[in-house]
Design brief:
By secondary structure, the chain is α/β, with parallel strands linked by helices. The chain has a single domain (42-226), classed as Vaccinia Virus protein VP39 (Rossmann fold), CATH 3.40.50.150. The chain contains 8 helices and 8 strands, in the order H-E-H-E-H-E-H-E-H-E-H-E-H-E-H-E. Strand 2, helix 3 and strand 3 form a beta-alpha-beta unit. The longest helix is centred in the first third of the chain and has 14 residues, at 28-41. The N and C termini lie far apart (40 Å).
């Protein structure tokens, strides 16, 4: 199975797209990694239910990393946590390829890389209570007021995350856009998730977007919420 971009499926009840599709040009190394590693570690987000035990070849707690970007933080977090499987999803083809290269270089075999909309993956492909953690680190903040309705974290998305988390599972969210942090914290008051921390989780590496924000004088805001048992 060679890599081919997945046509973006839109959920009928969620017509607004929350991301910008950025296929981009691949470097020679990225193209090589995609050709060699996608058949082993790639997942197409097309709506068919996933058998996670078969996908990872074992039974273990599972982490979903939404919007893995170029993969630096995803690879670092996975390398430090070999007891849990990690499924990373994004729509940025060069980023997916770069992550595959990092995983091979690090010898990290407990990560799978999915191409497509995280909402489709969560709703149509993952079973209830199948995840130990969902990470949404530095999603597009859509900072302009007229675009704010496109933000990923909504009451519907939080309810979906809660349904896919096992009891005691957690949502880890980070942003350097204060209005987005305030909005999500307000949403959590009415969501089936309990806010337990505003501190940076020790397991969260510095992401590329976070470093860019630091360089521009912005501060990261973390929120961690759990599903009640």
């Amino acid at each position: 199975m060679t890599y081919e971009p997945v046509p973006q499926r839109v959920l009928p009840h969620a017509p607004l797209q929350t991301f910008k599709v950025r296929r981009g040009r691949l470097t020679a190394g990225q193209a090589d990694a995609l050709a060699r590693l996608w058949p082993r570690w790639g997942v197409r987000v097309e709506g068919q239910p996933l058998d996670l035990d078969a996908l990872f070849g074992r039974s273990a707690p599972r982490v979903l990393d939404v919007g893995c970007g170029m993969g630096e933080a995803t690879a670092a977090a996975a390398a430090a946590d070999p007891a849990r499987d990690l499924l990373a999803v994004d729509v940025h083809t060069p980023g997916l390829a770069a992550l595959l290269r990092r995983l091979e270089a690090d010898g990290t075999t407990w990560v799978r890389v999915a191409d497509g909309d995280a909402r489709v993956l969560l709703e149509a492909m993952l079973a209830p209570a199948s995840l130990d953690e969902v990470r949404v680190w530095f999603p597009d903040p859509w900072p302009k007021a007229r675009h704010a309705k496109r933000r990923l974290l909504t009451p519907e998305f939080l309810a979906l995350v809660a349904a896919r988390l096992a009891p005691g599972g957690r949502l880890s969210f980070a942003t350097d856009w204060p209005p987005y942090a305030e909005e999500v914290e307000a949403l959590l008051r009415d969501a089936p998730l309990q806010l337990v921390s505003r501190e940076r989780p020790p397991s969260r590496p510095v992401t590329r977007f976070e470093q860019q924000g630091r360089d521009a004088g912005r501060t990261a805001h973390d929120l961690v919420a759990v599903r009640a048992a």
